[in-house]
Specification:
Nucleotidyltransferase, domain 5, 2 domains, about 325 residues, 13 strands, homodimer, globular, alpha/beta
Chain lengths: ~325, ~325
Amino acid sequence: MKEFCIGIDIGGTNTVFGVVDINGNFIAENSIPTKKYQTIEDFIEALSLAINNSLSQISGNYILKGIGIGAPNGNYHNGTIEYAPNLNWKGIVPIADLLNKKFHVPVVLTNDANAAAMGEMIYGAAKKIKDFIVITLGTGLGSGFVVDGKIVYGHDGFAGELGHVIYDPEGRLCGCGRKGCLETYASATGIVRTALELLNKSDENSLLRNIEEEKLNSKDIYDAAVKGDKIALEAFDFTALVLGRKLADAVAITSPEAIFLFGGLALSGDYILVPTKKYMEENLLKIYKNKVRVELSGLMGKNAAILGAAALIWEEIK
Amino acid sequence: MKEFCIGIDIGGTNTVFGVVDINGNFIAENSIPTKKYQTIEDFIEALSLAINNSLSQISGNYILKGIGIGAPNGNYHNGTIEYAPNLNWKGIVPIADLLNKKFHVPVVLTNDANAAAMGEMIYGAAKKIKDFIVITLGTGLGSGFVVDGKIVYGHDGFAGELGHVIYDPEGRLCGCGRKGCLETYASATGIVRTALELLNKSDENSLLRNIEEEKLNSKDIYDAAVKGDKIALEAFDFTALVLGRKLADAVAITSPEAIFLFGGLALSGDYILVPTKKYMEENLLKIYKNKVRVELSGLMGKNAAILGAAALIWEEIK
């Protein structure tokens, strides 16, 4: 009989989900607006309805093997979302239990970046790799560490916050309240901060000066870099320097075979990949040199968040 | 029938070993001078002879379950010592194979700090803990990371070099050829460098001024700190600041339940423990605060290197 999983990606604005088979094929896909639901009960009700609608599109008999969820501050050990700053539901939300009561199948939860790492392992570029790191370069910097074929969850389920290792103790203010976190430099928003700093402290001509400061985004910087814009290229170089240094530190801890970049800023391809790899190599301890691949995620352009969430279940029941 | 393991700790100067049971009791213990043997073959010959001598002291029948080795640059995956700067034997030395040919039992090898972590798990303070880090503060800073009950070896067997994450890219020259590595600050030799810097840049009276610069060691600094010496206390404070900051970064990666300090500098007890814990907490991301124990190793005063090496075997055959 056919077997499917549900992969759910809970974001601050929208919750998207898909019905996925073991090969990563989407049978159905839909979304609901996360922000609209003030209580977790209303959210679960709406989500269950939407999922049941999607499941009803499957022809013939099938088995629903489970539900995987990627969510901010998702705790793998407890199946809870804990104190997520960008969601309406405060405190500790037992979301895995709530969905299990609706669908009577295993429900597994982790944070977005860990789900992305699982997706990379099951569906992406890490199919045969047992030690790797996935870095998501979006609004922030998320990371999933895989050691010997298993996601590193840590004793409390919250491991893998490479975005919040400190690059500069006196550096940029971070949303977490501290200063100099890696994600304030190496992320889609970080490179914008860098470009604005560079624009403000030089008189260099730049295509970026044609864009309002508030509207400048990482895609603009990429477009300018492609046209050879000096400031844009310098912004990529500095971003890569910071990221490369901290990746070298991360390598010294888990010694991965590969590091995969994903997310908005990774769409810049070689503009971020090549200098990041260069600076990482420059900063690696000798025994690690020329051993660690730095590549784009194998899930670029795919709905990796849903695939990763679904992959949680395939891994769990393996 | 009684069961024993051999635990071997290969150091640059001496190689010490013990015959150990599953409860960590030493049946026999001995050592040979590592430096004396120019070829690995001569070393293995001498070591085997010494081990056989020790085994002959066991009364009654017994089973030798295996041999565990802690060695600098020890590669767990291959059973080799690779390019160890402080040993006579250059290149890649297949030490596990060589000993297996002599004793016909499993031989497992890793680096010193990973062995210490294994010892902590089997015999020490981490018996019931699945996620922890052991930090050895000796001449350098070694580290063993344990995730979900398993040592993190990495794809190449060389994971866990926290001593070589960078604290300050423009900082102190490290033996590895790079600048600002954590171990140039947080180690028995690092605190001596700090004390000398403090002495040189101030006129403050200090007991440490009575000791020749070349002879100053971490024990002297501890003794002075106990007597309230300002420079000595400041040296501990700065060492702890650096270590605390980098431990906070490490927590963000593997989210351990506990961090255990071991080695020469850890003998300073609360003088290093209390400020390190304070600075770590100050630098932790909110979700990790007040969750991570920082304590002395449960093997302080014991021959942890041998116990850890023996523990490798008990874990392997479990």
